């Protein structure tokens, strides 16, 4: 699709991590703020420079208040494959659009940003002097300028083959920075209560953005663990709620996950985590409950369901059951009020999760979850589907040479009816679902082979 015109063009400077997650995040956030993803760039791949058309500067600023995948955004005044092309592009940019930021009462500075190359101070000054043809009438102020302009040069992605001249050169007015600092300020290294599977802060915010979480939403996590995903959603003003089958984790009891700490302290719990970040007012509750047997009345409660189900690697996949469900030959447990803990196959878990989301999400609400896969056998048809849910994005994060997990984002597009519960599972698709059940065995078989290979190499 062609860009509507140069006046709406913006340049996004993207971070160089979680590359597959960047495009879905930007698309989701633009949709959240009333914009639409429009670009003629074609492919994005690993490039940190994206040219977009955004309806207004307000939407651009709102985007940057949320994104953790983008570093900065600029109103793009000119672009070329060489300095000469850039200057020609700048000369054709409407002067009336420049004047409000270059008049005599204003202050400004020009910054040089290079990707994959370092310039000397002399080279930077030379590039700034070459922009003297622009109608700057204000005063230079390097400390507190009213307006910041940036010249950005792209020298490609190969650090071993840096070209003499840049592939692309951009010039624009800086609008805003993204929220990259959240990754450090919410780091789990500094968090009060963590577990073996606490979600990385950056990925937690990406999941909340994929889920289009906004102020006053109600966000639910059925496998809440230590509540890392609740924290990210609460940061964006959503009220958060969760369940987990593990009594000790929900109540902050038992052995600690931190090094050199044997037992969890009296104030290590999910509520304390939110309190640590000043977000306790968004905490609704967390209950000990079995995700396979939700105790909800029929209805739509949640604006988003954001979760990281257990894969059976560091946390077991369990559900509650009865004595009757225990296979014959196994020793029966004594009768007690504590439910029997049974294995919970991944295929059943995802089947239950999608049905639960279809029943309880509001129309337009999103389900965001991780799907573990054995990469040699993975095909797109293995991603669980549901007639009420539309697949929005499917992003891969590699775990090892043979395994990965995929961040699946789905949106509820039709009301749930009882006949939708299993109508989407023909026999052949059911077999694909069941392929997830052996993920744990395949994961550890790969680990065992790798260890054996390393031991063999060390002995040679």
What are the SSEs and their pairings?
Blueprint (H helix, E strand, L loop, with lengths): L8 E6 L4 H14 L16 E5 L3 H8 L5 E11 L2 H9 L3 H8 L4 E9 L5 H9 L9 E2 L6 E8 L13 E10 L3 H5 L15 H10 L7 E4 L6 H8 L3 E6 L2 H5 L18 H7 L6 E6 L13 E6 L10 E4 L18 E4 L2 H15 E14 L14 E10 L4 E10 L14 H8 L4 H21 L1
Parallel strand pairs: 4-5, 4-6, 8-9, 8-11, 9-10, 11-14
Antiparallel strand pairs: 1-2, 1-3, 3-7, 6-7, 12-13, 14-16, 15-16
Helix pairs in contact: 1-7, 7-8
Organism: Equus asinus
EC number: 2.1.1.214
Main location: cytoplasm
Nearest-integer average pLDDT: 85
- In helices, the fraction of residues equals 25-40%
Note poorly predicted spans: 1-7, 326-338
Strand order of the largest sheet: 2-1-3-7-6-4-5
> Termini distance?
58 Å
Shape: elongated
| Helix and strand sequence | EHEHEHHEHEEEHHEHEHHEEEEHEEEHH
The overall strand count is 16
Total count of helical runs of at least 4 residues = 13
- Measured by DSSP, the beta-strand proportion falls in 25-35%
Return Rg in Å. 26 Å
Structural class: alpha/beta
Main beta sheet: strand number and arrangement? 7 strands, mixed
Main location: cytoplasm
Subunit structure: Part of the heterodimeric TRMT11-TRM112 methyltransferase complex; this complex forms an active tRNA methyltransferase, where TRMT112 acts as an activator of the catalytic subunit TRMT11.
Subcellular location: Cytoplasm
Family: Belongs to the class I-like SAM-binding methyltransferase superfamily. TRM11 methyltransferase family.
